[in-house]
Amino acid sequence: MTICAGCQVKEASRLECPNCKKLGINGSFFCDQDCFKKNWGTHKIVHNIVKMSVDAESDKTSTLPANMRNYPFTGTMRPVYPLSPKRVVPKHIQRPDYADDPNGFSPCEAVRERGIKVLNAEEIEGMRKVCRLSREVLDYTASFIRPGITTDELDAICHQACIDRDCYPSPLNYSKFPKSVCISVNEVICHGIPDQRPLQEGDIVNLDVSLFHNGFHGDLNATYPVGKVDQESLDLMAATKRSMEEAIKICKPGVAYREIGNKIEEIIKPTGYSIVRRYTGHGIHNLFHCAPNIVHYGNSKMPGRMEAGHVFTIEPMINLGTANLDHWRDDWTAVTLDGRRSAQFEETILITETGHEILTRLSASAKKNKKKKAKKAATTNGQTPDGTDADTPGTGTATPAATD
Question: Where, by residue number, does a protein bind (predicted)?
Fold first, then answer.
């Protein structure tokens, strides 16, 4: 027997509240019309509660594009739309071939390569310059990381820093990527699109900066803490950076490219973290992405050996949990399948006759001069510099000092 929803005493008839039916509330039957009218003032409170719940749920998805509203997000991150308009690059700045293509297509990258390009002395100098500029832009943009700043605001800062150096931000319109820098927060592995979400205390955020200058691309990235971060995230970041550093150390002429992945796995496997296999490092010079492919996991069959004049990136993506991933419905954002955090670090490497050179790091003398300038500026402002390297995020610090 179904009890009347009004008097809560008599058996209900087939008289159902029409509003409850519209709202999908089951079981709202009354014994008769008089009981329905008598208890209307109390009963309609149920409608208000359900409407408030529906409105609250609607607010959660109101900032999502229509094609993402039913997407089963793997973690806590959500995109916050609308995206800001595409940023303008002045006409006097040299552009890569995909910059103005409606589909972001690069005809040069589409040409099949016969092998890994060996750069001559002039090309190497071009790479040194663009990589130095790329480091400047990453350090500068990272200095603004703090709780409350949106990733779109960081994109605007990075974009202007590129323009100020007569550089084109390489990600912009590459295969239709809509922004000037990739910003990946928490469970986002890579290719995060800057949007209106403010960074929050305890987040970790990766800035992947790439510049195009005088015909060459530079590429590097680092993961930073936002305010005070939990130890688990700090350990993940430290292990990821160490795996990259150890892999860089083995680089010299004659070394097989697959040894990079073997070294990274040697560092990461004992930690219990996982290595993303879907994305790799890559060759880079006048092309943004080209041979060789640099896998970051062990026991691969990747062919090729390093030669003097080769330039490529090493950029391991390391996850707290599974290596499996998914993509948001924006054609770009890669996220961990279990929603746990991911970290990444990247440098651009030149193979020399005797070993290697990290093109995206300042030389010792340049670093020393930069520290002197920073110290002088801090003293002038009544501050004390902390000496933290910008490419080595400080424990629990929101804005690593730009000293490298």
Answer: 191, 289
